[in-house]
Every structure is written in structure tokens, then in C-alpha cells.
Amino acid sequence: MNLFAGGGGAEAGYRRPCAASAPLLQPLAIIRPVKRIALIVGLASLAAIPPASALADAIYTFRDENGVVHFTNIKGVDPRQRLLYPSATAEPPMARGRPVALPSQATVERYRAFVDSAAKTYGVDPHLIQAVIAVESAYNPTAISPKGASGLMQLMPETARRYGVRNIFDPQENILGGVRYLRDLLVMFNNDYKLVLAGYNAGENAVIRSGNRIPPYAETLAYVPKVMDLWDRLRSRAG
Fold first, then answer.
1. Which residue of 90, 166, 210, 237 could cross-link 215, Cys pair, CB 3.0 to 4.6 Å?
2. CA distance linking residue 196 with residue 10, whole number of Å
3. By three-state DSSP, how is residue 155 classified?
């Protein structure tokens, strides 16, 4: 289904995996700047757009060669496109600088079977996996970051391909790919969990270029202690 009036495709990396997982948004408004009354009607249509805090998807807009303004939730349908409203769920909590609350037991249980299975298969602490999921996506399986990381464990497309993840929004596949990456980072950095988490956030090459230290990126410097702290609290609660 094409949401963009006038044809054109969406970037494959942004399109939702299936219609059932997140209903696609219809065009919110089309404004033709012909007469003043048309502009007023268009502005009234814009007023009907829900506030950014209520939107599950980001909203993009562009004006075409005929002066028609298009609105869509699909990124990349036109090179003139710009972000109108950010997604309420795309950015992980750590990127917004907010403290990460201890997830409820019910939230942890939602994906426990997948987490515990992957943890046992690849020898990674399940509480660490849960902490990464909480910080990365707040347990939102359809979360997409501004940089294109997707799913529960916020896998970048190239990381997903590396670990054979075919549907990045499938919770089980996403968790398996993320846990395999954590396992490889544990081997690479000799079980130094701070470097492992820095590598997960910034990429292993960034850690290596920094002399096997946490790279001096603001996001990574905030990310590592948040995951470590939440991991400790999850272990404490589990006893």
C-alpha cells in the first residue's frame, strides 16, 4: 500500500514487516496553495494531526512540483521530504537522556521464553539481554531509531544480515541476532562488559579505534552505565 499521493516506493528498511504489526498511516492532508480559502482548509487539516507524543510513527512531508503538500509515515518516498513530527517510539530511552525505569515483571515475561532460549544457546546472561532490550527499545518490537536500528534489540540492517535475521521486527529473530552479536563481542573483548556494551552501541570498530576503550561519543558514554545499572537491578530483583 502506497501512502504517498502520486506514486513511488518506500525504502525497504523503513517499511513495516506486515500490515498487522502496525497499521500504515493514510495521507493526513494535501494542501493546494491556489486560493486563500484552500490554505485555510489545509491548515485546518493540519490541526487534525495528533500531537507528536500520540504518534507511533514519524510523519514526513514534502511539496511537489504542483505545489501539493504530501504527508506520510514512510521515510524516503521523495528526496524533498522532511521530518514534520518525530516518532514517539523510534528513539530509545537512552537517546532521550531519560533514566531507564526497571521494567515490570509482566513486561519482562513478555519475551522471556525467547530471551532465555537465546541466553542458554549462546551463553549470555539473560538479565543482560533484558537490560539491553529495555534501554534499546523499551520493549517495543517495531521501534526504529533515526539511524535505522530496528526492533527489540535495535539491530542495524547490516548487523541483521550478518546474523541471518530475515525479519528484523520478529521478536524471536531480533533477539537471536542481538544475542549472537553480544556473544561475539564478549569473545572479542574478553568479557569486558563495558567494552561489549560500547561495541553494541557504537560498533566494535569504534571501540578498537579508541584503543579498546569506550569511544568518546556522548550517546555511548551515557548508554554503557545505563545498561550496566539496569542489568544490576534486574539481577537484584531476580535474587
1. 210
2. 34
3. strand
Dist. CA 177–CA 231, nearest whole Å: 19
Q: Tell me, yes or no, if 136 is annotated catalytic.
A: yes
Are 118 and 175 spatial neighbours (Cβ–Cβ below 8 Å)?
yes
Distance CA(180)–CA(96), nearest Å, equals: 27
Quote the cell numbers at residue 106: 509482566
First CA to last CA distance, the chain: 49
DSSP letter string, 202-230: H-HHHHHHTTSS--S-HHHHHHHHHHHHH
Mean pLDDT, 10 residues at a time, the chain of 239 residues: 34 32 43 38 44 52 82 77 58 55 93 98 98 96 92 96 96 98 98 98 96 95 95 92
- The beta strand positions in the chain, using DSSP E, are 59-63, 69-72, 82-85
- pLDDT of 85 reads 55
Cα pseudo-dihedral 236, 202, 13, 117, rounded to 10: -30
Q: Residue 99 is placed in which grid cell?
A: 533514566
Q: Is 192 within 8 Å of 208 (Cβ atoms)?
A: no
Please tell me which residue in 136, 158, 173, 204 is annotated as part of the active site: 136
Residue 59: its H or E element: strand 59-63
Distance CA 97, CA 20 (A): 31
CA angle 66, 69, 75 (to 5 degrees): 115
